[in-house]
Structures are given as structure tokens and as C-alpha cells.
Design goal:
- The chain has 255 residues and is of the alpha/beta class.
- The protein contains twelve helices and eight strands.
- The chain has a single domain, classed as Rossmann fold (3-Layer(aba) Sandwich).
- The protein has an eight-stranded mixed sheet, sandwiched between helices.
- It is globular and about 50 Å long.
- The chain binds adenosine-5'-triphosphate and magnesium ion (MG).
- Adenosine-5'-triphosphate binds next to helix 1 and strand 7.
Amino acid sequence: MSQIITMHSYRGGTGKSSTAANLALLLASAGRRVALVDTDIQTPCLDVMFGPAGAPVRRSLTDYLMGRCEIEDAAAPARADAGHDGLFLVPARSRAAGVNEIMGRGYDVGLLREGFDRLIDSLALDVLILDTHAGFNNETVTAMASADALVIMTRADRLDLAGARETMALARRLGCHRLSVTVNMVPDGGIGERLRGEVESAYDTRLTAVLPYAPEMSVLAGERLFSTAYPQHPLVTGYRRIISAVSNGTSGIRR
Ligand SMILES: Nc1ncnc2c1ncn2[C@@H]1O[C@H](COP(=O)(O)OP(=O)(O)OP(=O)(O)O)[C@@H](O)[C@H]1O
Ligand SMILES: [Mg+2]
């Protein structure tokens, strides 16, 4: 049975893409066939995280949505040093696919869902991970609606939490019953009971994982993925916790 995992956050910069990339890598290293789709057409990044520096993207999600290729043509094995055969990447944009074109011309949103399903079939995937643009644009809402498991990323910050009610209302309307909430970038010492309570009551769910702020990530400067460089780090333990919650269906437990 294949599974679609969608990463979401109300505000930008919460760690969706880094987490998506590391979850994909960890799942692939456990022998699962995984594809990662960058639906963040406005501000893509997965091609940079996985690609060799400066390597041109030949085909992308945008090329598919513009009718220039099939979705399968936009999926390429992730870079060799990821070290796993069963890991594929669909970048958001190629050089030929400018953001102005897709924003100006628009596209048939139904193609997105169709493309996700086609990828699962043609690549015989166990897991499809959808990285999204923050907030609620067309691609993000479609990715949320397609999710078997919605992974919500937040910081323990009032600005981020201000979006919780809207996110939860939309998730409910879209029928996302299996959702998990992860707090990222928590400084040393953990989250504290009061803050944990605030986050859990904002999302009306128990937290799946509390991920530490890892200064090592900025030292890596995006040159390697975190779980490859620091496999024993508590942050990677947190990534594994998300995977097991999402795979066991233990996420989204009501308080
Ligand atoms: N646990 C962490 N500790 C330290 N830095 C982190 C952590 N998680 C993510 N980061 C850093 O925070 C920045 C934002 O992360 P990322 O791009 O993954 O967020 P995002 O939610 O995908 O952002 P956007 O909404 O812009 O797409 C990156 O520089 C990343 O390296
Ligand atoms: Mg991102």
C-alpha cells in the first residue's frame, strides 16, 4: 500500500523542505521506494538540496503542468551520494519553466492529483512525499487534499501558532484525518510544559515530535543532507519519530 505524506506549515521557514528531504532519505535507506515532489513552484529548493551544485534541471513539475512532458519524465533518481536506488525527485521548475509563465498562464489543478497518482503507479512507490509552499495556495491545498498523512511543521512561536486554527479548519474540510504536528528548531532544554500545552491546544492534538535547533545545519550550508552527515544526532532521532508515527498511524491522536 502506497502512502502520500504532505508537509505543511502556515508560515514559511519552519523546516518543511529540510524535514521532507531527510524523511525521504531515511525511508529510502530503509529500503522503501520513495519520490519527493517539490510543489513549491514559487520558491523551490529540493533540486538544490539533492542536486550537484549548478546541475541544470531538465524536466520539472512545472513542465508537466504546462503540458511539455509527462510527470514520469520529470522524475529523476536523486543524486548518487544519496546512496539509494529507490529515491526519486521531481523538481518544481526547470530552467525552461519560468515562474512567470505558470503564474501568468495558470494550469489545470486536476493535473496535480493525476500526476501524483501516476507517479505512484509508474515508479511503484511505497511513499510519495509532497513538499509545499507555506500557507494555502493551489498547489499546497491540492497536496493537503491528496495526503494520507499530513505532517504539520511549526515553531513554538506565537506567530506560527496564530495559523493553527485556520490550518486545522482547512485540514478538516479536506478530510485530512491523519495529521501530525511537529515543533521544529527548539533551543537547548526542550519545549517546556507550558509551551507544549499551548501548541497542543492550538492544534488540538498531541505533539508527534519536538525537533531541536541544530546549529550544525547551517554549518553544512546545504552541501549534504543532515541525516547523512549526522546520523546519530537527536534531530535525526526526531525525524525517525515522525516516520514511525506516520507509518503506524499513531499521529493525530486527540488529546
Ligand atoms: N532543526 C533545525 N535546526 C536548525 N536549522 C534548521 C532546522 N530545520 C531547518 N533549519 C534551517 O531553517 C531554514 C528553513 O528550513 P526549510 O527551508 O527546510 O524550511 P521551509 O519550511 O521549507 O521554508 P519555506 O517555507 O521557505 O519553504 C533552512 O536554512 C534550514 O537549514
Ligand atoms: Mg521549503
